[in-house]
Amino acid sequence: xxxLLIGSVIALIWALLVVAEEGKEVSPENQGVSLMLLGSxxxxxxxxxxxxxxxEDMKKHSWRVISxxxxxxxxxxxxxxxxxxxxxxxxxxxxxxxAAEKCILGVNLGHMFSWLLLLQLVLxxxxxxxxxxxxxxxxVTLSMKCWAVMMGHISGFSAINAFGxxxxxxxxxxxxxxxxLVMPIAAIVLKIVFGIFACIRDRISKGDDGIVDExxxxxxxxxxxxxxxxxxxxxxxxxxxxARYGFTGVFANVEGEDEVxxxxxxxxxxxxxGIAMSLLHALRxxxxxxxxxxxxxxxxxxxxxxxFAWCFYNGTYWLIDTNLMAMGESAMGAxxxxxxxxxxxxxxxxxxxxxxxxxxxxxxxxxxxxKIILALGIxxxxxxxKSFDVxxxxxxxxxxxxxxxxxxxxxxxxALLLMALVVPAWRIYILSTLYEIGxxxxxEEELIEEEGEVPEQKKKDKAVTNGNSTxxxxxxTSRGLAAPLLARGASSTSQLTVEEKMREMERRMQxxxxxxxxxxxxxxxxxxxxxxxxxxxxxxxIEEDKEELIVNSSSSTGEIRSKGNHVVKFxxxxxxxxxxxx
Length: 582
Known about the structure:
Blueprint: H1 2-23, H2 28-51, H3 56-94, H4 100-127, H5 137-167, H6 176-180, H7 182-207, H8 214-248, H9 264-288, H10 294-323, H11 331-357, H12 363-403, H13 407-436, H14 439-450, H15 456-465, H16 471-477, H17 482-488, H18 490-493, H19 498-536, E1 540-541, E2 549-552, E3 558-562, E4 567-570, E5 578-579
Parallel strand pairs: 1-5
Antiparallel strand pairs: 2-3, 3-4
Helix pairs in contact: 1-2, 2-11, 3-4, 3-5, 3-12, 3-13, 4-5, 4-8, 5-8, 5-13, 7-8, 8-9, 8-10, 9-10, 9-12, 10-11, 10-12, 11-12, 12-13
């Protein structure tokens, strides 16, 4: 069924392109609308197959990719709308004359700092570090994840825009070597800014009682993780801009666009550079195992794999533009690009998951693979945002023509409307699903491991599963309540299917429930016995036959019978001190 769906999509796309090239009977508008409809339905139905995949890791990867796609789509659309307002109402009016270049750079840096500051404040309010302390951990976790990812992506693209303006200044735009120097400058500036914010967070967290509580710790961890994402987005984009400049001799604009028809060799060079960067970090993680700080490791990993994602996107764009159709500003070209990027990315995710499941990769290599998968999710979202951006721009032009609303304001209104529709559904349904399947718990465990603090229970689970199952089984059985149940039988069930493992887990849980009920009955029996003894015995001291006692409470008067059939009777309602050794 999946092959039939993919084949149908490819055939229909090819048919539309052939008609567009040869017959020219279909207008560009109709082609764009047809492809958008086809692409949306195909992408939507494909996700149903992926989120119901029999492989549990593929399910988790699929939900993560969908989450990244929605977040990056919403974030980029909203940021570009805000940037349009800034350019029209601030830069166009304030930045004039000989100092215009410095003024433009200052405004864009200020725009970036505003989003970074807003990131700190929003997460502080949600976590309770500022304001009322929350009580519902699940609700706080979902809200923190939602707005941390959203604000992180917006901040990342604001950093891309600000340092992209610096990269296009007269001195840095001389050649690719000068352009590449902006990357370490951006890293230093972001490092200083994030360090200042870290000091402020520490003072706020310890300001009330001198102790960092659970919610304040969550705030700090989420902010640091989001800042690492900002590093990855901004520095990788700046690196790819310089690489493109070096390979082609053409310096793309701040948004990464140029009007040159690139030959296929340029696309292969860019793809090769991206793959080399990704493999370089994967090989370092697998074989060299260099000792660097945990946070720096995460940042380098993000930069390397986002570099691969940007190279893959731009290389695919050039191949389509050269061999299939002229992309330009057409909605149809953007939709074709989004469809191809999505299809290839999901195939790559499937292959990467198989590699991660094999026993030949270590923990660091698996983390690198997971980062590549997340980068591909961001890439899918970015490609679909590009197609929507073209559509939003055209609708904004129509709104301006009909109602005289400025184009920048029309784009901002539509971006707000789309966010109001998409973000709540993303937070309520998709992030909740990720929470239920344990994706966030895995991220927390990875963070704890990077800090060098492995929870005691996790050590026990690893000790139980060590040597008795494959790596895939260890990852599957070390999560949630199923870990201690399935781990005991890992050696005998490692070859079972997922359904058989689930049935075994249910059987063991049912047995545990029965044991719990028997324990309750036993406790009740003991309580009845103690009550009977308290009510019936006045004072008894048994010197003979102390090995075993039998309580008989069936008559109106109780009796205690020893193993040697010595019977002591007592009144029903008397009190006793019962001294014996059984």
